[in-house]
């Protein structure tokens, strides 16, 4: 996808921004008819240790720190192929 702005896959930074209460614009894969499109979505912290990446009622990625996941927040974002726009303010 040709995006004329800088995106990041620095998931430690994304988690830090979410922990600060920011809602972050993201892009993720959206498969339709055996093709992959990039969908615009929003990442946010939805509770203590709970994170969600959603768009139009679809949850593309989620992570709860208190669950016994075999993966990390960074792994979850990587599996969903999340890119985000770094805030400039």
TrEMBL record:
Superkingdom, taxonomy of origin: Bacteria
Name recorded for this polypeptide: Uncharacterized protein
Source organism (scientific name): Phocaeicola dorei CL02T12C06
């Amino acid at each position: 996808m040709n995006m004329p702005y800088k995106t990041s896959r620095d998931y430690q930074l994304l988690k830090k921004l979410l922990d600060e209460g920011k809602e972050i614009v993201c892009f993720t894969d959206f498969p339709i008819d055996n093709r992959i499109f990039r969908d615009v979505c929003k990442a946010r912290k939805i509770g203590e240790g709970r994170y969600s990446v959603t768009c139009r009622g679809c949850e593309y990625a989620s992570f709860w720190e208190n669950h016994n996941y075999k993966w990390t927040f960074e792994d979850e974002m990587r599996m969903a192929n999340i890119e985000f726009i770094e805030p400039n303010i």
